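re: the backbone from monday

yeah here it is again, tokenized this time
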């Protein structure tokens, strides 16, 4: 089966930044077989006139369960916000996680996202199989998922931030992570599900769990993610407790490397930025969440110049109520320019972060992140023909500088998950209804 998208503007995001004003993309089974200018022929020919085709967006950081706890602690700092939300999250069960993840993933698909890294770190004792619920929701909506099996083993009585009933023992956290890897991690290059190891953050995790998770991940060949250098509160706590910054702490416990991508990475000294670049440590930049919690503006320009992979993340919907990835392209551009001036980031660099940069963070630059022959057919077809963008000169500028355009089509491995602005893999109103009752039950 040969499917052709014709007559569209195309931003391939390949190494040369190749673009076509009027071109085609040809898909056979799950892969792209040709990209070029002019029209091509196939078994199915889709007229994408007035559209921009880009690689599917890659979300490098999320907490899908939080879709059920939006709108709380609206004016709080991160630590205040966590302390208000932890007791609610303590009542999470697999059914609520499934409903929240389905809704969050549907929203992501409807904003051009085809691959999602979800960091799940709440495992209440009576909560059922949280990882299975996430895997099932990803299959339902049809996106690729990198499930970061998170963990916390340091409650209030051990000097941590979360309540004691929300943390696991170190042994249980490592065992649960290993079980998730054994049950679900797919190392093949067209994988729909991968697992990563993810102790939550320095203020909720013991050093033993940090080093144990790194050892486990490297033994199993999976990647590592934690929250790092998100707030100044975190930095002060780290300095007081360990006598070093969060980035220095990460270095000390073996957590800088090409198999690691860090959520946030806002408060990094120049030496830490250089270490990220030298070690290939990735950063999941979450501009809307950082703005919502007023944590600061990440040094994205410096990280890019140092050669570190930088991807974009929505972060959990409890600190980014919109939960869409398209607008992170826009927010990333605005924040980089507010920090570094008008030349700090180009619109095409913002698109690169949301696609290839994210693929690099997840170790999938060989099969995702750009539109090139041989790559998996994960793509977004943005409709620029309506009132929002009709007649606009630069289609990439439309996508990055303006509101997220509607989507004519979103494909994952050549399978359609969104068409003409509507989810095709599940009924949106059913997903929304399940979410509403899950959120009510949780609160
Ligand atoms: Zn997060």
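seq for it, each position gets an aa:
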């Amino acid at each position: 089966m040969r499917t052709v998208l014709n007559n569209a503007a195309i931003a391939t995001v390949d190494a040369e930044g190749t673009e076509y004003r009027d071109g085609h993309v040809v898909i056979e089974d799950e892969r792209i077989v040709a990209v070029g200018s002019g029209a091509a022929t196939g078994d199915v020919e889709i007229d994408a006139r007035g559209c921009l085709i880009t690689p599917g967006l890659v979300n490098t950081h999320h907490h899908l369960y939080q879709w059920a706890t939006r709108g709380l602690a609206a004016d709080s700092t991160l630590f205040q916000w966590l302390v208000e939300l932890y007791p609610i999250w303590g009542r999470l069960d697999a059914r609520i996680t499934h409903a929240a993840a389905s809704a969050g993933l549907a929203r992501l698909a409807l904003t051009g996202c085809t691959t999602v890294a979800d960091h799940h770190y709440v495992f209440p004792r009576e909560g059922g199989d949280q990882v299975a619920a996430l895997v099932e929701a990803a299959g339902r909506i049809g996106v690729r998922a990198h499930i970061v099996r998170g963990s916390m083993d340091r409650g209030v009585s051990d000097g941590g931030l979360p309540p004691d009933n929300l943390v696991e023992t170190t042994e249980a956290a490592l065992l649960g992570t290993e079980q998730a890897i054994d049950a679900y991690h797919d190392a093949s290059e067209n994988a729909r599900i991968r697992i990563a190891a993810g102790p939550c953050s320095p203020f909720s995790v013991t050093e033993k769990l940090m080093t144990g998770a790194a050892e486990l991940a490297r033994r199993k060949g999976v990647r590592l993610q934690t929250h790092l250098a998100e707030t100044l509160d975190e930095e002060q706590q780290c300095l007081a407790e360990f006598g070093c910054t969060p980035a220095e702490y990460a270095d000390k416990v073996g957590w800088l490397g090409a198999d690691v991508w860090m959520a946030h990475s806002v408060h990094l000294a120049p030496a830490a930025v250089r270490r990220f670049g030298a070690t290939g440590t990735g950063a999941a930049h979450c501009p809307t969440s950082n703005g919502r919690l007023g944590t600061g503006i990440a040094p994205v320009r410096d990280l890019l110049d140092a050669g570190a992979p930088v991807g974009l993340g929505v972060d959990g919907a409890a600190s980014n109520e919109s939960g869409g990835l398209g607008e992170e392209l826009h927010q990333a551009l605005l924040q980089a320019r507010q920090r570094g001036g008008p030349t700090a980031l180009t619109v095409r660099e913002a698109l690169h972060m949301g696609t290839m940069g994210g693929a690099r963070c997840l170790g999938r630059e060989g099969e995702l992140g750009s539109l090139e022959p041989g790559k998996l057919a994960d793509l977004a077809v943005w409709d620029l023909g309506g009132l929002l963008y009709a007649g606009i000169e630069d289609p990439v500028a439309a996508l990055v500088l303006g509101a997220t355009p509607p989507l004519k089509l979103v494909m994952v491995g050549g399978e359609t998950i969104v068409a003409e602005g509507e989810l095709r893999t599940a009924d949106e109103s059913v997903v929304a209804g399940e979410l509403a009752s899950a959120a009510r039950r949780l609160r």
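The pocket of zinc ion is lined by residues 61, 63, 119, 227, 263, 315-316 (CB under 6 Å). The first strand starts at residue 2 and ends at 11.
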